[in-house]
Amino acid sequence: MTDATDWLRVVAAAVFDDAGRVLLARRPAHLHQGGLWEFPGGKVEPGESLEQALARELEEELGILPRRSRPLIRIRHAYPDRRVELDVWRVDAFSGEPHGREGQPVEWVAPEELPEREFPAANRPIVNAVRLPDRYLVTGEPAGDPRRFLARLDQALTGGVRLVQLRAKGLPEAEYLRLAGQAIECCRQHGARLLLNGPPGWVERVGADGVHLDSRRLASLGQRPLDSRYWVAASCHDARELARAEAIGCDFAVLSPVLPTASHPGAPTLGWGGFAELADAARIPVYALGGVGPADIPRAHGHYAQGIAAIRALWEPVSARS
Ligand SMILES: Nc1nc2c([nH]c(=O)n2[C@H]2C[C@H](O)[C@@H](COP(=O)(O)OP(=O)(O)OP(=O)(O)O)O2)c(=O)[nH]1
Ligand SMILES: [Mg+2]
């Protein structure tokens, strides 16, 4: 059994500027994981809350005071020589002008450029969490005129959605691929990403941004089906499926059902407590799905979620909901 005291508790911050760039610092060569890029932060001192530790570290290392922050992800990682529990916060407003107060180089970097930087091994899920939005739209099943479907997609994107899963189980291959091509174009216009809920081989054929594996595909794959230029996500319902998603190298997961839904009445749910336990133990970002919507995003962040995934709450026009 592992004793909680075995873990070195560390807080770190993804500090964002108004242009959406994130601040990186380079670890001094002589330290643990030296020479690599990091999110500024450091060890939690005895008696400190996480927020206190975060404020102290950002003052010491960058000369800034966080004004608006929230939990982003918590990751445990065992290096050969130490085990760290990294509590990473997203800081969206701060006072002061950040600079490397300990002589360390610091740099503002666009999130999409983060994969080109070298980080400590623990940081892979953190980098994904920084790059991913807090809402993940799962499209409703297309029916009838595809133009109506695309208009609705456009509406969701106009509302700020930046990550979409094209879920259309009822469409034959040719129709799915045609719709995917149109949906990708629509997403591009809004700077959004589209993942296909389908065979991974379709992704390169239509130029999508990645694949979303349903439980069946997740169970059938022995390894990550696409290289790191693409997103690979998975639908999970329990610890076993989450472990599988991690083992094959998925970038993130969706965990459901958190709450009862109209589509699965009477099905057992995780509840926020059950969700939080699984999401905290996961080593990849996890979205909460099932009976949740944008209004639940703050609650999701308080329960170790990347954010919320939804069909109903993000797709259907508000007026069409009961
Ligand atoms: N700050 C930070 N630490 C990270 C990241 N990734 C990662 O594996 N770590 C590890 C490296 C270290 O083992 C530990 C952080 O400890 P630290 O050496 O920065 O602690 P500190 O700022 O309090 O430094 P010190 O006062 O002890 O010199 O967490 C990251 O992105 N940011
Ligand atoms: Mg530090």
Automatic annotation (TrEMBL):
Coiled-coil annotated spans: none
Name the UniProt record assigns to this protein: 8-oxo-dGTP diphosphatase
Cofactor(s) demanded: Mg(2+)
Residues reported in the UniProt entry to bind 8-oxo-dGTP: R27, H32, E38, F39, P40, G41, N123
Organism this protein belongs to: Thioalbus denitrificans
Any GO MF annotation of the entry: 8-oxo-7,8-dihydroguanosine triphosphate pyrophosphatase activity
UniProt keyword Transferase, yes or no: no
Residues reported in the UniProt entry to bind Mg(2+): G41, E61
Record-annotated Nudix hydrolase domain positions: 6-134
Record lineage: Bacteria, Pseudomonadati, Pseudomonadota, Gammaproteobacteria, Chromatiales
Signal peptide: none
